[in-house]
């Protein structure tokens, strides 16, 4: 069964022109919207390691506990293949140190998951060399973070490398560290045209957490004057309330649960929204997800009762 429902603070970060809330006010908002926990953006203007020392972390933990927010994911931002053309800059070491400090922060806040990314494909190295770099760097990150046994390192299927679910599975198995788990989301395989139930069934037993956002696709065209016509471009994905987009989350989440997934789930608004970025709109979208998840959980419970032969 799906565990805690989390709200991602990036939703109220102002990053796409939407309403901005300071981190503490966001935590109050998540509690008011009836979420079980939070996913905290680990950079300014929210949870930067530069701004939250030991004292600030104690205050933040107390605020989380005062609201009984039990689920926690710290959303780190990494790109382990960055700047490969300048090998003299120790980017992998810098990012490994940052990931380790994020794990320390998660521990200070009571334990949870630290989300990281893989890397964007870089022209300065071969795909094989970048794959090997990822495996070795992720392995070191996991081993350094193991000093915090209440923290799991989570790899989200976001950047270019290992974006496909088969490759994501290969990568996690290649790293082969017990505290590194995939944080497998539906939006990437949905955009890839994959079978979501198949992907979720394969990834569910390994996955510690999933983040959701629903989208509608908008066609895009470039006008070609010489042909007096248009050339089709990659469609744009526009965020809409949960259940109004093209992603079959019912099939995805059902397959996750049936495969043995029991991790947390977060809702995020990390792109422009169809209905604008006013705080009331953000609140409405966030509340809609809580409603959707409640309906999904009820369906799962009814299905289990019917399967056991008892009256629904």
How would you characterize this protein structure?
The chain is α/β, with parallel strands linked by helices. It has one domain (5-212, 246-307): Divalent-metal-dependent TIM barrel enzymes (TIM Barrel, Alpha-Beta Barrel), CATH 3.20.20. Helix content is 40%, strand content 19%. The chain has helices spanning 23-32, 54-66, 91-108, 127-145, 165-175, 187-192, 196-203, 249-258, 279-307, and strands at 5-8, 37-41, 71-75, 112-116, 151-156, 180-183, 209-212, 214-224, 229-240, 264-267. An 8-stranded parallel beta sheet has the order 6-5-4-3-2-1-10-7. It has a two-stranded antiparallel sheet with strand order 8-9. The longest helix has 29 residues, at 279-307. The protein starts with a strand and ends in a 5-residue tail after the last helix. Mean pLDDT is 96; it is low at 307-312.
**CATH superfamily caption:** Divalent-metal-dependent TIM barrel enzymes
Class of secondary structure makeup: alpha/beta
Per DSSP, the total helix count is: 9
CATH architecture: Alpha-Beta Barrel
Q: Helix share of residues? A: 25-40%
Quote the CATH topology.
Answer: TIM Barrel
Largest sheet: 8 strands, parallel
- The end-to-end span amounts to 18 Å
* Unreliable spans: 307-312
**CATH class value:** Alpha Beta
Cα shape: globular
Count the strands?
A: 10
Spatial ordering of strands, largest sheet:
6-5-4-3-2-1-10-7
The string of secondary-structure elements, in order, is EHEHEHEHEHEHHEEEHEH
Query: Cα-atom Rg, whole angstroms?
Result: 20 Å
The average pLDDT value, as a whole number, equals 96
Strand content: 15-25%
Instruction: State the domain count.
Output: 1
């Amino acid at each position: 069964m799906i565990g805690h429902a989390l709200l991602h603070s990036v939703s109220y970060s102002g990053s796409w022109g939407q309403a901005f809330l300071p981190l503490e006010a966001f935590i109050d908002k998540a509690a008011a919207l009836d979420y079980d926990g939070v996913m905290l953006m680990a950079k300014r203007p929210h949870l930067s390691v530069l701004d939250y020392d030991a004292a600030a972390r104690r205050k933040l933990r107390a605020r989380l506990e005062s609201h009984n927010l039990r689920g926690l994911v710290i959303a780190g931002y990494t790109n382990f293949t960055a700047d490969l053309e300048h090998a003299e800059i120790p980017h992998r070491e810098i990012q490994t140190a940052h990931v380790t400090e994020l794990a320390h922060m998660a521990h200070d806040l009571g334990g949870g998951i630290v989300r990281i990314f893989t890397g964007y494909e870089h022209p300065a190295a071969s795909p094989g060399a970048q794959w090997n770099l990822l495996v070795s760097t992720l392995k070191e990150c996991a081993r350094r973070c193991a000093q915090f046994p209440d923290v799991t390192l989570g790899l989200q299927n976001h950047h270019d490398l290992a974006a496909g679910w088969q490759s994501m599975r290969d990568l996690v198995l290649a790293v082969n560290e017990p505290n590194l788990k995939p944080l497998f989301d539906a939006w990437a395989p949905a955009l890839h045209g994959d079978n979501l139930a198949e992907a979720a069934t394969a990834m569910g037993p390994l996955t510690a957490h999933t983040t959701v956002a629903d989208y509608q696709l908008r066609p895009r065209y470039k006008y070609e004057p010489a042909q007096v016509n248009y050339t089709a471009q990659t469609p744009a994905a526009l965020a809409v309330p949960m259940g109004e987009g093209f992603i079959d989350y019912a099939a995805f989440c059902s397959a996750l649960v049936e495969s043995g997934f029991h991790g947390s789930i977060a809702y995020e608004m990390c792109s422009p929204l169809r209905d604008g970025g006013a705080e009331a709109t953000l609140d409405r979208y966030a509340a809609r997800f809580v409603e959707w998840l409640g309906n999904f959980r009820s369906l799962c419970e009814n299905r289990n009762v019917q399967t056991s032969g008892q009256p629904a």
